[in-house]
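Researcher: Please translate sequence to structure tokens.
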Amino acid sequence: MTGDGRPVEEFTAELLARAVFGPLGGVVEIGAVNATGTWRLADVSLGDFLDGRGAEVDVLLAGVRSACAFDSTTMSTAWDLGWLRPHDVTAASLLLWSGGLTGVPAELESPAVVRHMCQVGADLQLTRLLHASVTAAVTARTEAKRGARALAAVLTAACTLSGGPRPSDVLRLWRVAHLVHVLRPGSDASDAGRSAFRAYEHVLTVTFGD
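Model: Translation complete:
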């Protein structure tokens, strides 16, 4: 049991879900900004953006549920975090999603800076989303071929939502930013865990032809 009386499995599922759905905030906010084509925050309507992207959101959530074996309570984390409800998109949030790479220039809301934050943020948050979802699927012991196919649909939908990189680009970023650390000899991953991550990487590579 955890300190608040919940089973360890429930607590772990919640942490995994937050790791998966946290980056989703960046994906949808960046997608809403990119969809304007102006990169002016005054032109952004997250509500309108989400209203027109219901199919992609549904595919993403269904794929996560299938691959990561999240139950209904765990899946509700996606809504509890608030990313899938209308809200304002600010330059400060884009700075957060982009890892603060631009620093804090005087013209943080200028279209050029906003566009750059969106480019960096899409790469970063999509890569985090992929790593978190593969980690959750491996933790759930979902068979690699089935799980990776579901996550390929998740990644495709997420890339479409973001208006950013292609899935094959995100796959390459994931390999160098995360996978190499899982597979290094000194990592905390078990031999079985390393084998599972390698299996997911293989199926995703075949799927995206990279």
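Researcher: Any highlights?
Model: DSSP finds ten helices and no strands in the chain.
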